[in-house]
Design a protein that fits this description.
Shape: globular
Strand content: 15-25%
Mean pLDDT: 94
Oligomer: single chain
Number of helices: 15
Bound molecules: glycine
Distance between the termini: 37 Å
Number of strands: 11
Radius of gyration: 20 Å
Low-confidence stretches: 1-8
Strand order of the largest sheet: 1-2-9-6-5-3-4
Largest sheet: 7 strands, mixed
Length: 379
């Protein structure tokens, strides 16, 4: 299914079917001129977007240094939308209520109305912040996501989860606000630092484990092409991840049935690692998720859900080929458990995990007790 060709002639669309909130994700390879027509077509399908004449492009300093916001501004100009650019510092601390408030100030200055478009141009931090502002200003503005990191392209830009951090809790202030469209250009990944690419690959691998064993096997075959950033290989993995995410989001948009929670495989332990090691500490989100996925596979082995070795060995080998960590033995296990006990998936005091039954099949469970978790963490 996934060939290793290097063509730049990539132009694929994934539909996210959500009734009146439906939208398209377009995956291209180096097509700056295509953005304007895509934006116009996606906006035209909504009441607010159809008469859009102004926009605020929210981005960070790295992306601004590459000159990308100016090209997006010009494309919007071509379709009759006058856009201002707001440039924020890069990094997790940007995702704050203070910065949301600064963006509200810009919108007031711009005399924004309910038809003013917000463009989130950057990685997950920018997308979440821009999306939060779009969700809240004037009770909701049209939003287009242009994710520029692999992690944002395969995960955070799709599905409508937007928000900012509270100093005491990550992602705790937020909303569901679906974009009007998502524009993914693999060309943006050419400039991505290797460590960031690897972090995105952790989430890519996750999709194989949770829902698609064939995709996992394909990743094993094309790992080197992906690491070489061949556009054909990148576009195909991004497409498959977006297809899977679109299916999951369409089935459980607001994470109420347990289906969307599947996307949290590796994240119960991963989030705890980030919380204990510090958000600007030694583990980036994707690295913590990589370690979390391995530990959660070992937990599934302990519960007898999967055979020892099997899934876990293949997962460890693939993550290692992608240059990702698979263990974090230096962290205090008691503090990790404490952090897990604050996980958003928990119910009635029990820590809940998404664990594999096989490669490509996971279930949400609260059947692991603290002893099981401690044993796995100490191993
Ligand atoms: N990143 C997990 C979700 O969108 O539900």
């Amino acid at each position: 299914m996934f060939s290793t060709e290097t063509t730049h002639e990539v132009d694929h669309t994934v539909a996210v079917p959500l009734g009146p909130r439906s939208y398209n994700i377009r995956v291209v390879a180096n097509d700056p001129a295509g953005f304007g027509p895509f934006a116009r077509a996606e906006l035209a399908r909504t009441w607010a977007g159809a008469s859009c004449r102004s926009a605020l492009i929210v981005t960070d300093m790295h992306i601004a240094d590459l000159g990308i916001p100016a090209t997006i501004q010009a494309s919007l100009g071509d379709i009759g939308i006058a856009a201002l650019i707001a440039v924020l510092p890069a990094g997790e601390s940007t995702k704050s209520l203070e910065n949301a408030s600064r963006l509200y100030d810009e919108l007031v200055k711009l005399q924004a109305d309910r038809h003013t478009l917000i463009v989130g141009l950057g990685g997950g931090v920018i997308g979440d912040l821009a999306g939060f502002v779009a969700a809240t200003y004037a009770r909701g503005l049209p939003l287009i996501m242009i994710p520029t990191t692999l992690l944002a392209q395969v995960d955070s830009s799709v599905g409508g989860k937007v928000g900012v951090n509270h100093p005491g809790a990550k992602n705790i202030i937020g909303a569901f606000h679906q974009p009007a469209g998502v524009w993914i250009d693999t060309q943006y990944l050419s400039n991505l630092p290797t460590r960031e690419l690897r972090c995105g690959l952790a989430e890519v691998v996750k999709y194989g484990v949770i829902l698609d064993a064939e995709f996992f096997a394909n990743l094993e075959q094309i790992a080197e092409d992906v690491l070489r950033r061949e556009h054909g290989a990148l576009a195909r993995i991004i497409m498959r991840c977006c297809e899977i995410k679109a299916l999951v989001v369409a089935a459980d948009e607001r994470e109420e049935t347990g289906l969307r929670a599947m996307l949290n495989f590796g994240h119960t332990i991963g989030h705890a690692i980030e919380a204990v090691a510090g958000y600007d500490g030694p583990y980036k989100h994707g690295e913590a998720v990589a370690v979390g996925m391995v530990a959660e596979c070992r937990l599934a082995e302990r519960l007898g859900w999967i055979k020892k070795g099997d899934v876990t060995d293949r997962l460890v080998r693939l993550l290692e080929r992608f240059g990702l960590p698979t263990r974090a033995t230096e962290l205090d296990t008691g503090r990790l458990i404490e952090a897990m006990s604050r996980d958003k998936k928990n119910r009635n005091g029990a820590i809940r995990f998404v664990l594999p039954r096989a490669l490509g099949k996971v279930e949400l469970t609260d059947s692991a007790d603290v002893d099981d978790i401690l044993t796995v963490l100490s191993a």
